[in-house]
Design brief:
heterodimer; A: about 300 residues; alpha/beta; TIM Barrel; eight-stranded parallel β-sheet; globular; B: about 775 residues; Aldehyde Dehydrogenase, Chain A, domain 1; Aldehyde Dehydrogenase, Chain A, domain 2; six-stranded mixed β-sheet
């Protein structure tokens, strides 16, 4: 859709009220026992299993892909009454130069997401960022996580932000793009809300909280604001935009809080990999630990759980 | 493995019940019926009547309680009276330690109390666990601090306090009552509501653990009849009541002859105002917390949604979508938003009001899902197509039912918001700080929440304007309510009349009434005699009747005093004092001839009067509010506001000083006053007209009505547009009849019991008492952050 500056300017966010909502929400809902197990299995299917370190190598990615295919041990699956293949992560997320490696190790039904456009700062030249998208797709990436220029947000230069995302979307052809807002750099929730709205107007298929490299990553407050913008956009256009919280979601307890937030604000329709992804690397192991406890009634030894 | 896991792609909330084993075991171990907590131990009731206790979530019987009778109440009050002699003298440090012990015990048993409260009351475990019980502990901590701070030698307590609390926040209301009372050195007899006594009884056990001295806290169960026995007992010196306006009025009337000190926390129909520039999604959550908190059974519930027309449609749409997501059911379940209605009678009341609303043509909407049928449940409901005159927009429903009204402009929002006899609370939503802070003082309510709702803290006073009651709970205001505030008496009132030689006016004086800044002939066309102290005729005085009262109230309501800032008021009072000081001879002569005092006494009274007005001129910009820092990112402004129109009925003693004190203290706080001088001293008051007229007093802000003794009392005390009444009368019958008359609009009253007030007292305590009585505190909550 076209950029609607009036709409963006009129967005209002009250921080204290947002905090009240998130702090009470997690206490208004609770899932226990087999329901909790089901929610955790669901969470696994939403994970964008990620490795985004300077020391990533082919070997590291290969291991990651193995974990993506078999996120929990066969023994545990068995005890939960599930079969291999029934549970796998939402996607694998890697740097551009490891896309081919990931593709090679994954079945068709696990997409590979690449972080492009000068991740994580997004401040390399526009030309090279665009080119990176083209290249990533050429290498086989199924989804592109782009970083937005946070400077445009801080300057309230919505037009520039809009145009850039439009161009990235064009460069990505028909592939999904996830716009990474870098919420930690945007400082205020008002900025987070406005940036979310502009990115959706420009054609982002997903909005994603952060790169994982900023000091503040996904939390319930910035997620609530983004979810409300997604709802607003859906009511306006009938188009469902996906949400990807990333960074800092490392425990089973936290991921359930995020799922509850999405369930309450957007509803059941959003709780599937098409519209919800969780960017995480160490989360999976904590979920597995909880499932182990559920299935066996005792807490697991860390070394019994396979690392990715 | 279960189907639920197999079907993990379609996740849903399952049951998440809080464990209630320990609590049920405790309930089952109670005596049936349970005993009363009197003088530190459990005493069998003298009555054979019982109260059945149910769990509203199942509508099944839990246990039974005693319905305390007269003998029980006598025993409890007697124990409290006996304990008072030592407790009121117990050192502040020791009292603080006891309150601290209670705070700690509540924290140590917090989950038990939460579960017990939920089972007894039906409110969700989330609320008892996260809101009620933490606030209870906070209240005892805060007042442990006050106990430490208050020296009962200089700030005397009152005595035995009778406390009657409602069923909506059983333990929290108990804490609001007991903590400040015992912190200030009083002892208490508390009666929890008949539906919800269990947490108070468990608290009594905690009192035993804390070794609270015997008789300081007495807790007896019973119904309204027990309550009446407490309020009417000759030894309860103060009654603190939270409940309906209807019962509150009855208590005021029934205790009027005993002239007890009262704190009344009554009903409300609070507005929740949403401006177009609000964060609408957050405001929707605000509505949820305003009207679906505690099943809407909250005196300050935001039950009238006022939404700006430009965003009305979208807001209602958002609200309905949100309502679909609310979950009603077993309150012990951790995923429940709305629990059970407290009792079958309350459920029926809600149902019948809703039916009436529909019949009247308002449109009811409820979510598509159905409530469980095995308990006392009622779905969240909203009414649209409501106008301010609709039944459901006026009556307090005390249930999860919201009425939606719209407005076009800020001033229209204010007038709709104030269009109710109640004035407990209001919530204002706007991202424009100018707008929000402009509206806050314009709403006539004791608590204002900006971009928030239903926030409470022990440091911030809570209480209403208008028919929502009077007195504050929490903060320093709440402490004052449990301290003795009687005025100083003068012992040397000489009955001796000095035969002064007075100069009679050379031409006939024709004092009239002083109404709206003009001298006005009385409607009746009658006059009465102004005599000297030696019974010589001086002149005729206009005799005001009820029509003059009507016109005067009309004039007072048009007074511009409300728009003067405190500096303006201060200047005017200084000027008034200056102008009065130039009429020494006139007033000294009048005092000598009418009061029959010596020249020296008359001179002193005159000088005192000028000084008094000077004092209140000085205080007009110094008797200011407080800023509280409740535990949040934000501030609470405790603003002192005027009462409105206040009538004062004066007595014969020190007439010039008395009237100077009253008019200047009321004026300093921005009230419009109507003063009725004593019949015998009328000419002194009427001689002030010329002083008023030369002092820039805005018309209508000071009015004088002369009449025969007590002739206007009923008209004034019953007039529903008068907001407060002060009566200085030595006659207890006169005072109590004035108090009874106030209930029609619950006007603030102040009828000191003194036979002879020492008007010439210059202690700050005495002088400030007038300022306190001339003002009311509004707490404005301002959370902030970007």
């Amino acid at each position: 859709m076209n950029l609607d500056i009036d709409l963006v300017s009129n967005i209002r966010i009250n921080l204290s009220a947002i905090e009240r909502r998130t702090s009470t929400l997690t206490k208004r809902r609770s899932v226990k026992k087999e329901y909790q197990a089901a929610w955790l299995l669901k969470a696994i299917s939403l994970i964008d299993l990620t490795t985004l370190s300077g020391d990533d190598t082919a070997g590291k990615v290969e291991r990651l892909c193995e974990k993506a295919k078999r996120p929990i041990s066969l023994d545990l699956l068995d005890r939960l009454g599930l079969h291999q293949g029934e549970i796998q992560v939402g996607a694998v997320c890697v740097y551009h130069h490891l896309i081919k490696e990931a593709k090679k190790n994954l079945p068709k039904n696990i997409p590979v997401a690449a972080v492009s456009t000068g991740f994580p700062a997004g401040l390399s030249s526009f030309k090279t960022r665009k080119l990176e998208i083209t290249e990533s797709i050429k290498n086989g990436a199924d989804e592109i996580d782009i970083v937005i220029n946070r400077g445009f947000v801080l300057q309230n230069n919505w037009k520039k932000l809009y145009e850039e995302v439009v161009d990235f979307k064009k460069a990505a052809k028909n592939k999904h793009i996830k716009a990474i807002l870098g919420v930690g750099d945007l400082e205020t929730l008002r900025n987070v809300a406005k940036a979310s709205m502009v990115c959706m107007m420009a054609g982002a298929d997903f909005i994603k909280t952060s790169t994982g490299k900023e000091s503040i990553n996904a939390n319930l407050n910035n997620s609530l604001v983004m979810l409300r913008m997604i709802r607003e956009f859906y009511q306006m256009t009938g188009k469902k935009i996906g949400f990807k919280p990333a960074g800092g979601i490392s425990t089973a307890k936290t991921v359930i809080e995020f799922l509850i937030l999405v369930m309450e604000e957007l509803g059941h329709d959003w709780i599937n990999p098409k519209y919800l992804r969780i960017g995480a690397s160490s989360l999976l192991i904590d979920i597995e630990r909880q499932l182990y406890h559920f299935a066996l009634g005792r807490y697991a030894n860390k070394e019994k759980l396979a690392i990715g | 493995m279960s189907k639920i896991i197999k079907n993990f792609k379609n996740i849903s909330y399952g049951p998440a019940p809080e464990d209630s084993k320990d609590v049920m075991a405790w309930i089952n171990s109670m005596n049936k019926p349970n005993h009363l907590f009197i003088n530190g131990s459990w005493v069998k009731s003298k009555s054979s009547k019982k109260i059945q206790v149910i769990n509203p979530a199942t509508n099944k019987k839990l246990t039974s309680l005693s319905l305390a009778n007269k003998a029980d109440v006598n025993a409890a009050v007697g124990a409290a009276k006996k304990a008072y002699t030592s407790w009121s003298k117990t050192s502040s440090n020791t009292r603080a330690k006891y309150l601290y012990a209670l705070a700690r015990l509540i924290q140590k048993h917090s989950r038990f109390l939460s579960v017990l409260e939920t089972i007894d009351n039906g409110k969700p475990i989330r609320e008892t666990r996260d809101i009620d019980i933490p606030l209870v502990a906070r209240h005892f901590y805060y007042h442990a601090g006050w106990a430490k701070k208050i020296d009962t030698k200089t700030h005397k307590p009152i005595g035995v306090i009778g406390q009657i609390i409602p069923w909506n926040f059983p333990l929290l209301m108990m804490a609001w009552k007991i903590a400040p009372a015992i912190a200030a050195g009083n002892t208490v007899v508390l009666k929890p509501a008949e539906f919800t006594s269990l947490t108070a009884l468990y608290f009594a056990q905690l009192c035993q653990k804390a070794r609270i001295p015997k008789g300081v806290i007495n807790i007896i169960t019973g119904d309204g009849t027990t309550g009446e026995l407490i309020t009417s007992h000759v030894d309860t010196k103060k009654i603190a009541f939270t409940g309906s306006t209807e019962v509150g009025k009855k208590i005021i009337q029934s205790t009027a002859t005993q002239e007890k000190k009262l704190t009344m926390e009554l009903g409300g129909k609070s507005p929740f105002i949403v401006f177009e520039d609000a964060d609408l999604d957050s405001a929707v959550e605000g509505v949820v917390d305003a009207i679906w908190f505690n099943q809407g059974q909250v005196c300050c519930a935001g039950s009238r949604l006022l939404v700006q027309e430009s965003v009305e449609k979208i807001f209602i749409k958002k609200l309905k979508a949100r309502m679909e997501k609310l979950r009603v059911g077993n309150p012990l379940d951790k995923s429940i938003d709305i629990g059970a209605i407290v009792a079958p009678v309350q459920l029926k009341k809600i149902q019948s009001i809703v039916k009436k609303g529909e019949k009247e043509g308002s449109k009811l909407w409820q979510p598509s899902w159905a409530c469980p049928t095995d308990g006392l449940f009622y779905p969240p409901s909203i009414f649209t197509n409501v106008s301010p005159s609709s039944f459901i927009a006026q009556v307090e429903i005390f249930g999860p039912v919201l009425s939606v009204l719209s407005f076009r402009t800020p001033s229209e929002a204010v007038s709709i918001a104030n269009n109710t006899p109640y004035g407990l609370a209001a919530s204002i939503w706007s991202e424009n700080i100018n707008l929000a802070l402009d509206i806050a003082p314009k709403i006539k309510a004791g608590v204002i929440w900006i971009n928030s709702t239903n926030l409470f803290d022990a440091a911030c006073g809570f209480g209403g304007y208008k028919e929502s009651g009077f007195g504050r709970e929490g903060g320093i205001e709440g402490i004052r309510a449990y301290q003795d505030s009687s005025l100083p008496e003068t012992s040397n009132v000489s009955k001796k009349i000095i035969k002064n030689k007075i100069e009679l006016p050379s031409i006939d004086t024709t004092p009239k009434l002083y109404v709206g800044g003009k001298q006005k002939r009385p409607d009746s066309g009658y006059s009465f005699n102004q005599l000297s102290a030696q019974k010589e005729f001086i002149c005729d005085i206009a005799r005001a009747n009820r029509k003059d009262v009507r016109d005067t109230v009309e004039a007072a309501s048009k007074s511009k005093i409300g728009s003067l800032n405190n500096f303006n008021r201060s200047q005017i009072l200084f000027y008034l004092a200056e102008n009065l000081s130039q009429r020494k001879e006139t007033f000294v002569n009048l005092l000598m001839s009418i009061s029959g005092v010596s020249k020296n006494q008359a001179l002193k009274e005159f000088e005192d009067s000028c000084e008094r007005i000077f004092y209140y001129a000085s205080m007009a910009d110094k008797f200011e509010g407080n800023i509280h820092n409740p535990p949040m990112r934000g501030l609470t402004l405790a603003v002192k506001e005027s009462i409105g129109i206040v009538a004062s009925i004066m007595n014969d003693h020190q007439p010039l000083l008395g009237i100077s004190t009253v008019i200047s203290s009321l004026f300093a706080n921005g009230n419009a006053s109507i003063v009725v001088p004593s019949e015998k001293t009328s000419l002194i008051a009427t001689s002030l007209y010329q002083v008023f007229e030369t002092s820039d007093i805005p018309s209508g802000s000071i009015n004088i009505l002369t009449s025969k003794t007590n002739e206007l009392n009923d008209t004034l005390s019953q007039h529903e547009n008068i907001d407060g009444i002060w009566a200085f009368s030595a006659d207890a019958k006169v005072r109590s009849s004035i108090i009874s008359g106030t209930v029609f609009n619950l006007k603030r009253y102040w009828c000191p019991k003194n036979i002879n007030i020492d008007w010439s007292n210059t202690s700050e305590e005495f002088l400030n008492e007038f300022l306190y009585e001339a003002s009311q505190v509004k707490n404005i909550w301002i959370p902030y952050g970007e």
